[in-house]
From TrEMBL:
The keyword Cytoplasm does not apply. PANTHER family: FIBRONECTIN TYPE-III DOMAIN-CONTAINING PROTEIN, MICROFIBRIL-ASSOCIATED GLYCOPROTEIN 3. Transmembrane segments: none annotated. This is Unannotated protein. It comes from freshwater metagenome.
Amino acid sequence: MVVFRYPVSALSLPVHAGSNQVTVDWSAPSGGDAPTSYILQYKKTSESDSAYTTFSTPSAPTTIDTVTSLTNGISYSFRVAGVNASGTGTYSEVRDATPVGPPPAPTALISTPLSSSAQIAFTDPISNGGATITNYEYSKNNGSTWQALSPVDATSPITVPGLTDGNTYTIKIRAVNSYGSGTASESVSVLAGLLSEITNLVVSNTPTKRTLTSLTVSLNVAGKATFLANGKRIASCIKVSSSGVSPNIIAACNWRPSVMGRNIISVQHFPTDNSYSNGTFQSSALLVVPRTTRR
């Protein structure tokens, strides 16, 4: 039987919970054949015993190891068994410990552009790291530099200020507690400002003279779209209402080309929310081919 020299839950040396890690210290069995190695296992305390994972198998006489890559603020359970030529002995009593430190990363960031700023919604970190989250920090350049929210804000969504309308930013955020700044989130991209965007013209088939062709564009906000061919409005494609919700808003219409050869499709976007600017889009040249006639 392997027993812990000191209760892990005491959180004091030689058993110590640090930031993202816990040091486990145990004593060798007092009876039976001496072990040649040990098995150190851990799991989240909330999980069933089937979740135990082997962290290390140190060789005797080593009786200490540090379990790393843990999440601050989450309780873990630890156990140890001795191993020799006869097999694996009985596991020790379980001891629990909670590493404490800066919080883990927030997740699932969603950006919404605002005038000179952006709203960032997110899912809270899975724990507070062992201390109350008091604020968030943000980076506008993919983590190269960081600034704290002022005034402080510890609730989703937050507003990232100081953006220039029309510029694209790669934003990350991280939580802050009394232990320091936490792990950075994944990045989210945002085009600052209340600007309408028209992207991704999709043409249903090779444009053919006097043959129906569907034109579809993606929009960032709801509104109406007018399609033009070579600068002239397409009669059936004037102020077409969009459908769908962000980020899957589209406007579509049907076009029967009347001019063969090169056609440039442009689109004008008139957002429903008039705080957004109108937008424009121009495609590369589409080649309209003659209609094949049967004889």
